[in-house]
Amino acid sequence: MTLTDTMTDDRIILRVLSGAWLDGAADGLRLTARKKIALLAYLAMDRASVPRDLLAGLIWGDVPEPKARASLRQALSDLRAAHPALQRALVMDRTTVSLIPDQIAIETDMILDEIRQGRLPDALRTGGECVNDFLYGFETLSERFGDWVRDMRKTNGDRILRALFDAARRDDLPPPTRIEFAEAATMLDPMGECTCRFAMQLAWDLGDIGKALQIYAAFYARMNDELDMDPSIDTQNLAARIKMAAPSDAGAAPQPLSAPVRPAAPAGIVRHHGRPVLAVLPMQTSGLTDDDSGIGDLLVENMTLRITRAQDISVVSQTSIRPLSDHPDVAHLLMERFGVRYVVNGHIRRVGASFHLNVELCKTDEGLVIWADRYQITADDLAHAQSRIADEVVNCILPNMHGAELSEAQQIDFTHLTAYHHLLRAQDLAYALDPATFDAAGCQLQTLVAASPDFAPAQVALSDWYSLRVGQGWSADVAGDLAASENHLVRALASDRRNGRALSMLGHKRAVYAHRYAEADVLFEEALSTSPGDAETLLWTGPALAFAGQTEEAISRLTDARALNSDTPLGFRYDHFLAIAYFAANRMEDAVRAGLASATRNGGYTSNLRLTAAAAAATGQADISIQMVARVLAAEPDFRVSSLKANTPFRCAAKGAEYRRLLVLAGLPA
Q: Whole-structure pTM over 0.85, yes or no?
């Protein structure tokens, strides 16, 4: 049975390997229009529902916005008219385009289904080039779409490679079939040392020593021809053990094992700007039933995806880690092979109707646990809780990683710090909100951006520095600083369009300072789609909602963000943004509590001091108002309430007027 045979007469196939087209086997449909296929691929493979503006900008970003929207409308109309399945699958309203997935079969999913059924798809028998050619040629459609294609290419390649590993391990399949799956994995990952050793070991364990040595010989030749390198010492040692166990006629021998060994640097591992490298190990399990045995793998995939979408660290792929996971000193091995500095370990255990999860973060070179936590969830809410736990784990890991890196940076000679360490030290100075060190932080960030203009986190940090300078009342050129802040976000996105923090910060500025609310909404949507588990991305979407009167949504988002990531140098901002939402909702007592929490974390954040003074005045807490006003005037002696009138962030004029009235009532000069 072939891939086409598994399709019902009423469905169509989205072909995505070696190019892309739409295939209706039953009625001869073949649709190849690039932008229409790109639109369908994006909906089918990544987002079930997408804002129209996001789709238009992603695929027709090279034309003016009105023309892009018109092109999207025409493409959707043409697709719906092309086939009954597409008419049923595509659902649209004025703002959103959605896809009902059961009408379209995706080629990569069909390949995975065939592997799970114990059959090797024809597409994988002659090599992995077809997977590497996923959406071939579509990278040139636009820069943003090209980034998405490359991400999807890696994601689907990893999924297929993992499925091949799983099939090769199945005891219910004949040994030749299992070896065939392992060989297919080596063709999909031709330079993967771990994949090669897995296939060699499997063939040896199943009694086919000749095949094990042939796999090694082929790998040895590829390494020499393409990289001018020998296999690693571990791979050579395994080949030597197999060779010693082989009879004299056991197939073709590999190249001499005594050849000089050069250190093997794994292909594709790049340490961008000194960012730390992390590995998430497979979850240990106990007490699980057959029905929930996959929860550990799913949780690891979820955590890895979310960490990968954070911009501060590099993550080793699961396909590289999985074959090493049984090694007795896997952390040290990962450090040597991939430069891994941090390892996430976990254990999940079923106790009755509950699951108990323990997670810890270790530093590989010291063997120290620098963060750990435990969770308990019930089987009934397992599906929802998996994503929630992954978010909590990631957003607890990142601050601790930040702290560990910062501690190391402070002990290294300044001239030898990496760009990443420069960034951490500059942010540490900036977030202290001390006038004596704030300008020095700005100078460090400007120097860093000049030296590493493609380092997106530095561009984001410098943008935030300009915003803080305006918010603190320290700017001599407010318009110039706001323009510079936005410019650095635009530069960050030019280097890394999937930077959720840059997208959400840019949306915040468009809404709060320029009152371009529609643009802000599109940016927020893209940010949350790009970095769904990042607390700081979520944080920046909240104030605009509060200022627009959508207070319940703002409170919900900011409460989630604060719960995920409040114990950091930026914790004061999480509390302050939540105080804004409470104030906008007329929950003044809550606004005072959140404002005081922010002031306790950082007593120099003047925008929070002002809002807390106003909320305290509204509730008659004069002692708090007096204290907050004194701090504001100490930091900004020339502050006047009238300066807020020209550019109030509140969309409702009456709410802005109420805020200014309460500030005067609190004791600030009119």
A: no
